[in-house]
Structures are given as structure tokens and as C-alpha cells.
Specification:
The protein is built from 31 helices and 13 strands. The chain folds into 3 domains: 348 residues, Multidrug efflux transporter AcrB transmembrane domain (Multidrug efflux transporter AcrB transmembrane fold), CATH 1.20.1640.10; 96 residues, Ribosomal protein S10 (Alpha-Beta Plaits); 222 residues, no CATH class. The longest helix has 35 residues. The strands form 3 sheets. Strands 2, 3, 4, 5, 6 and 7 form a 6-stranded antiparallel beta sheet that branches. The radius of gyration is 35 Å and the shape is elongated. With 790 residues, the protein is an alpha+beta fold. The C terminus is likely disordered. The protein starts with a helix and ends in a 16-residue tail after the last helix. A hairpin with a 2-residue loop joins strand 5 and strand 6.
Length: 790
């Protein structure tokens, strides 16, 4: 191809790259906020068999996701309450919060009674139901017990409205009556461990996962906390909420991006300057990589509409692999010396680059098969980025590299030649078989120490300080997290309520045994029509003889008008779920009702005080329409299954590469070319075992990339050495350069704050290092003058 044709093609490629960059810039910055996703739930795969279960998971996750819970603690009761009021006023001045609740609006506790009073003759507790069902029930005895009850705190039913205490007993079992938080001086207060705790809640005016909302919310809470420390010394502030976790995750990811990006960029720059002794190759290598990263970002945003945290950090590390293609072209130019021709050089490296790209893309394609949104995005990012970087070498660099260049540093070439000779000697003849057996023998103890850990909580590190505060707030307030719940389905709301009641009977048995603290479900607040009819029928036995009831109440000293009013309220009306959901009292619990559609109705029941999946699953065993949904356990199980499949995928990838290498290098040489990445994977697994690293899905996905990267190095060496026969060691020097750039990027992921990327990075660090050292063994000493592969 003529220089003019090369320049024309480079110009067209440059224009296309600029257009892609402009589109990427618009997608990143042109829509008001950065599309960076810090919501862990969005990164996780769909694991539930029922779409309704997935919808329930999302509903619960986001029901309180935009709320912040703050707990003001002080040993002095008055100071704690004053500090909570001051905190509420301080937060209310910030527009980032749509609603701040510290002081409760003045209200009479009897307002909690209003939705139930008209339905009192249809509501009974289990104890009252059992007592009324026994022959010879004596209402006079129940009345005497009611009259002698101690002073009631909380919601008390007036005696004239509930002389026998049936409604009072029922209300005492409602969630608001069991809460450790009690209204006190117009605040929600808990007294524990010689301290007073006051709850302050705030609802964000926006999403917890919005960068601007996070920044403003954290600033507001920090300012308020500083003011509290100044005005109320000794007062402590505990906090929890999705916004704090999301902000911490974003901060960690930004730190990782800067660390990986800057260190790898500086390290790669120094390497390239040292090897090529000119800033030109350095700038062109980074130009090629930049084209790949920009294209990858744009394609990912077009496909997914957002960038996950994992992809963000992974993208910074992609520098090390994307730069390999330009390094090989620059090495070919340096090795050609005065005989350099850009077109001829391109033809020389094209087979190696295409073969290397194909093996790398194979690994990423297999990564994209995992039904995990974050991994799929990483695969799309890598495939588009690597392809664009390779195309830039074919279409852009030849036009910019018309002139010959200085050869590689002589010391580097001599060092690479000595190392190559040292590493290849044991691989020749019978010594190669013996060396391989020795390596496998050394690896065996490491393999035997391997174990697995599929816990999804290891995906992203939760800051210890935030986790400890959240645990303390739950313990003091009784607020649950909703990560485990029961999905109850039925043909209509009545059947759903009946099935909830069957479940709650079993849950109550666990509470009685001390294995569960309690549960939260709608059937406990609005019993099924069948249950209400049963209760009403039991009371009807007494109201069948109103004269006897009148006399019993009169003997106890009740006024005639009070007796008449109470008897006139009979028979009342059953409580309907639709009516109850319209009352203000239902507001905190409405997310438990999933509603009805053509397939039926559904509700949620939240167990409290236990995360024992087996125990909770047993409670639902055999109950029609009831299933336990545990999103973390489901995802962990999915990770475990796909981790188990990963070894098969890895084997499949190796088998797919074999015929390609057989076609290119011949069937006798193909096993030797494939040996370095395969042995590198084996040694990496052994090293992970020695390090006590439990294997996760991310280790196996990284091993898939080790296969691709390792195969690249073998390909570069085999394809390039015949062209550098006059300068032994030059080709291995370029392979080492590629390996070092990869270690400076992917290897730095082992220092990431994200556990998943740490696993990924450590595996690649070990795998790339082992493979780079094993590559000379794939080319025996006698092969260094072999003919150019066909």
C-alpha cells in the first residue's frame, strides 16, 4: 500500500474516532449527570424463577433506599432530645432532603385506634380465640381481668369501647406496639444501656445512587454532625442508608481508577521510553490505547446506558492489554532498523495481532456468557476496546510511522536473550518432560489447599464503620433490612391472607422457641375474611344473649349509656384490606402489598431477627403459594453454579484454540505453543491455594483471560522470532514489555478496594507472570532459526 493510501485510510479512521469520542462525551456528560451505577442490585443477575419475586426484591431494596436513618445518642436524656431536634432543623435547611422527621406532629395516640374501632367485633388474638372457643367461657372473668390490668402505655382502648379487652389485646400485638421506639416528647425514643437514643429520618430528594445527591447529602450530614459536636459535646451520631454505602463505593472506585490509571500510565510510559528511547512511540502507543478505551466506553454506554463500578476500574486496567498491539508494531519497526517500511511491517505483524486478538476475544466472549450484568458489560467493554485498539494499529499507526526508528535498547535485548536461553534450556528434550512433571509436583500441595467462597457479599467491600453502625441501629430500633422475605401468592387477596396466616403460625412457633424475633406481614394487621368470620362467630355466642352481657357490665359498674353504646356497635363490619391500605396508618407497610393482576395477588412477609436460610426455608416448606426469597443467597448460589461451570468453559476455550494453533503451526508444534498459558493457569491455581485464597467466579473468569493473554505471548514469540533472527532476544524483549505493561495495569487491580476486582487482579498478576516466564519453553533452542510459519 502506498504512503498516500496509508494516509487516506488513517485520515478516515481519525475522523471516525473523533466522531465516536464526541458521541461518548455526549453520553457521559451531555445528560446532566454521570451515568455511573453504584447500585449493587443493578449489577446482580436475575436469580429468582418468578418475575414477581424479582420485582419484590427491587421494591424492598428501594423502599428505603432513598431514606437516611440517624440515631442521636447521649447518656443525658434531655441533651439527646435537644440534639435530635437541632439535627432535624439543621438537615431541613438543605434542599437535598425532601422530608426530615425529627419531631413528630402533635397527635393523639388514639388516632391509631380509629381504623380498627368499627371492626372490633371481628378481630381476636390467638389467645382470646382459643379462650372463647372453650366451653363455659365466662365473660365476667375476662371483664375482671380487664379492669385489673396495669396502666397501659402506648395505644390504649377506652374501657367503655372495649370492656373485655379483646381489641386491646389485638392492638398490643401490632408492629407499632412491639417497636422498641416509643413516642416521647414528640420524638421517637429508645432507652438502652443507660443512654437515650432518638431517631431522626430524612428522605432524599433524588436517588441515593446519583452522584450530585450523594455529594450534597454527605455534606449536609457532615455539617450537621459538626454542629452537634460543637453545641452538644459528648453526643454521638449513628447513621445508615444506601446513600452512605453508595458514596463509599463510588469513592473507592474513583480511588482505584486514579491509582490504576496513573500508576499504570506512568509505569508504561517509563517502560516505553526506556525501550524505544523516544517520546514518539510512547505517544503513539497511548494514542492507540486511548482509541480503544474511548470506543469501549462509547459502545458500553450505547448498549447498557450506564457504566458499573466494576467496569470503571476494569477499564482503567485495560490499558495494559490494549497497548500490546501497538507495542508489537513498534517493536517490529525498531527491529527493522534502516530497512523499515510501514506497509511491510504491517504485513509482518498482522497475522500475530489477528491471532492474538482472536484468542483474547474468545476469553471475553465466554465472560459475556455469564448472566451477570456487570461481567457482561466488562466483556462488551473489552471486546470493543481491544478491537478498536487493534484496528488503530492497522489503519492509523502505519501512516504515522513512515520513518525508521532507533533499535531497542541493547542491554534489554541482551538481557531478554539470556533469560530466554536460561528458561528454554530445561524445556528441550527429555528435560522438558522432567521439568513439567516437577512443576506439577510442586503445584500439587497448592491445588489440595484450594477452596471456594461464593458469597455475593464479597463482591463489593462494605465499610466496617458503616456496617457496625447499621447493625447497632437495627439492634436498638428493631428496623429490619428486608434482604430475606416470603413471597405469598394467591388467586385473590383473601387467599393470600389465608396463606400468610398459615405461614405466620409457623413463624410464631419459631418466635416461641427463641429462634426468631418476629415478623412483619399484612395478615397480622388485616386478618383474612375467613379468620375474621371465625372470630365474629365466636363473639356471636356471647352477643346471642345481650341481656346477660348487659347485666355483667352493670354489675361491674358500667353506666347504662356506655353499655347501650357498646351493645349498639354490634355486629360491626369486617375490616377490608383495600380500606385499610387507604388509611395513614398503613403508610409504612404498603410496600408489603404487591397488588393483583390477571395471574392473582401477592404480598410480602418479612422475618426479623434471623438470617438462617435453612430455618426460614423450612418454615415455608409445603405451604402452597409461599416461597422464601433470599436475593443474596440466590446470587451466591448462582455464582457457585457458574464457578463450577467455569472449569468446563476454560477447557472448552483451550479446545477451541487447539485447532487454530494446529492450522497455523502444525499439529506437532501446537501443543508446545499452547503449553505456556495452560501451565501458567495450573501454577496460578497452585499459588492461590498456597496463599489461602478461596476461589470465586472472578478467579475463574480471570483465568479465562490468562489463557487469552498467555496465548498472545506465545503467538507473538513464534510469529516474530523468524523476523528477528539477526537480533536474538529482540522478540522476547517485546513479549516481556507486553507482559510488564499488563502487570502494571491488571496486576494493580489486586490492590483494588473492590474484592471482586482484587480477586480478578491477583489471578491475572500471577497468571501473566507465570506465562511470560514459561513462553521461552514453548520454543526450543533449536527452533530459533525455524522457517517463518505458513
Amino acid at each position: 500500500m502506498t504512503p498516500q493510501a496509508l494516509k487516506l485510510r488513517a485520515g478516515l479512521f481519525a475522523v471516525a474516532s473523533l466522531l465516536i469520542a464526541a458521541l461518548g462525551a455526549f453520553l457521559l456528560f451531555g445528560r446532566g449527570k454521570l451515568p455511573i451505577q453504584t447500585d449493587l442490585l443493578a449489577m446482580l443477575p436475575a436469580t429468582e424463577q418468578s418475575p414477581l419475586a424479582e420485582a419484590a426484591v427491587e421494591r424492598l431494596a428501594h423502599a428505603n433506599g432513598d431514606r437516611v436513618a440517624l440515631l442521636v445518642a447521649d447518656a443525658d436524656d434531655t441533651r439527646a432530645k435537644d440534639a435530635a431536634r437541632a439535627l432535624g432543623k439543621a438537615l431541613a435547611t438543605h434542599k437535598v432532603f425532601g422530608l426530615v422527621t425529627a419531631e413528630l406532629p402533635p397527635f393523639d395516640l388514639q388516632q391509631l385506634l380509629a381504623p380498627y374501632l368499627a371492626h372490633r367485633d371481628w378481630l381476636l388474638t390467638d389467645a382470646d380465640r382459643a379462650a372463647l372457643a372453650k366451653p363455659g367461657y365466662d365473660p365476667a372473668q375476662a371483664l375482671a381481668q380487664r379492669l385489673n390490668e396495669p396502666f397501659l402505655t402506648g395505644v390504649g382502648v377506652p374501657l367503655q369501647d372495649d370492656p373485655f379487652g379483646w381489641l386491646q389485646h389485638w392492638l398490643a400485638q401490632q408492629p407499632w406496639s412491639r417497636s422498641p421506639l416509643l413516642p416521647e416528647d414528640d420524638l421517637l425514643v429508645a432507652h438502652r444501656d443507660d443512654a437515650t437514643y432518638v431517631l431522626v429520618t430524612a428522605t432524599l430528594d433524588g436517588s441515593s445512587y446519583d452522584d450530585d445527591v450523594q455529594r450534597r447529602a454527605l455534606s449536609a450530614v457532615h455539617d450537621a454532625e459538626q454542629q452537634l459536636e460543637h453545641d452538644f459535646p459528648g453526643t454521638r451520631l449513628l447513621r445508615t442508608g444506601a446513600v452512605f454505602y453508595a458514596a463509599a463505593a463510588r469513592t473507592g472506585a474513583e480511588h482505584d481508577v486514579h491509582m490504576v490509571g496513573w500508576i499504570s500510565s506512568i509505569g508504561i510510559a517509563l517502560l516505553l521510553l526506556g525501550v524505544f528511547r523516544s517520546p514518539g512511540p510512547l505517544l503513539l502507543a497511548f494514542l492507540s490505547t486511548a482509541v480503544g478505551v474511548v470506543a469501549a466506553t462509547t459502545v458500553s454506554l450505547l448498549v447498557f446506558g450506564q457504566i458499573y463500578l466494576l467496569t470503571l476500574v476494569f477499564g482503567a486496567a485495560l490499558l495494559g492489554e490494549a497497548v500490546d498491539y501497538s507495542i508489537q508494531y513498534l517493536s517490529a519497526r525498531a527491529n527493522a532498523g534502516a530497512h523499515w517500511q510501514a506497509g511491510a511491517g504491517l504485513r509482518q505483524v498482522r497475522p500475530a495481532l489477528l491471532l492474538a486478538l482472536a484468542t483474547s476475544l474468545l476469553g471475553y466472549l465466554l465472560l459475556g456468557l455469564v448472566p451477570f450484568p456487570a461481567l457482561r458489560q466488562m466483556a462488551v467493554f473489552a471486546i470493543s476496546g481491544m478491537s478498536a485498539a487493534c484496528l488503530s494499529v492497522f489503519w492509523l499507526l502505519p501512516a504515522l510511522l513512515q520513518r525508521p526508528a532507533r533499535p531497542m535498547t541493547a542491554a534489554l535485548v541482551r538481557g531478554a536473550r539470556a533469560l530466554q536461553h536460561t528458561l528454554s534450556r530445561p524445556a528441550h528434550g527429555w528435560r522438558g518432560v522432567l521439568a513439567a512433571l516437577l512443576l506439577l509436583l510442586l503445584a500439587l500441595p497448592g491445588w489440595m489447599q484450594l477452596r471456594h467462597d461464593d458469597d455475593v457479599h464479597n463482591l463489593i467491600a462494605q465499610p466496617a464503620a458503616l456496617t457496625a453502625q447499621e447493625t447497632q441501629i437495627r439492634d436498638i430500633t428493631g428496623l429490619g433490612n428486608g434482604s430475606q422475605f416470603y413471597l405469598v401468592q394467591g388467586r385473590d387477596s383473601a387467599q393470600v391472607a389465608q396463606r400468610e396466616e398459615a405461614l405466620e403460625t409457623r413463624l410464631q412457633a419459631l418466635v416461641d422457641d427463641g429462634k426468631l424475633e418476629g415478623w412483619l406481614g399484612l395478615a397480622g394487621m388485616v386478618p383474612s375474611p375467613a379468620r375474621q368470620a371465625q372470630d365474629h362467630a365466636l363473639l356471636a355466642r356471647l352477643f346471642h344473649d345481650p341481656a346477660h352481657l348487659r347485666q355483667t357490665l352493670a354489675d361491674a359498674g358500667f353506666r347504662a349509656d356506655a353499655i347501650d353504646a357498646w351493645l349498639a356497635a354490634w355486629p360491626g363490619a369486617p375490616l377490608r384490606l383495600d380500606d385499610w391500605l387507604k388509611t395513614p396508618l398503613s403508610t409504612p407497610f404498603r410496600q408489603l402489598w404487591m397488588g393483583c393482576d390477571a395471574q392473582g395477588c401477592a404480598s410480602l412477609v418479612l422475618p426479623q431477627g434471623s438470617d438462617d436460610n435453612a430455618l426460614l426455608a423450612q418454615a415455608a416448606a409445603g405451604l402452597p403459594g409461599v416461597q422464601l426469597v433470599d436475593k443474596p443467597a440466590s446470587v451466591s448460589g448462582l455464582f457457585g453454579r457458574y464457578r463450577g461451570y467455569a472449569s468446563l468453559w476454560l477447557l472448552a476455550a483451550m479446545l477451541l484454540i487447539v485447532p487454530v494453533f494446529g492450522w497455523r503451526y502444525g499439529w506437532r508444534r501446537a501443543p508446545r505453543v499452547l503449553a505456556p498459558p495452560v501451565l501458567g493457569i495450573a501454577l496460578t491455581l497452585a499459588a492461590l491455594g498456597y496463599l489461602g485464597q478461596p476461589l470465586t467466579l472472578f478467579h475463574w473468569m480471570a483465568l479465562m483471560l490468562v489463557l487469552g493473554v498467555g496465548a498472545n505471548y506465545a503467538v507473538f514469540l513464534h510469529e516474530g522470532e523468524p523476523h528477528t533472527a539477526g537480533r536474538p532476544g529482540a522478540m522476547y524483549a517485546s513479549v516481556l514489555l507486553s507482559a510488564l505493561t499488563a502487570l502494571l495495569s491488571f496486576g494493580l487491580l489486586s490492590l483494588s478496594s473492590l474484592p471482586a476486582l482484587r480477586d480478578f487482579g491477583l489471578t491475572l498478576l500471577l497468571g501473566i507472570a507465570f506465562t511470560a516466564l514459561l513462553v521461552p519453553a514453548s520454543r526450543a533452542t533449536t527452533d530459533t532459526t525455524a522457517r517463518l510459519p505458513r
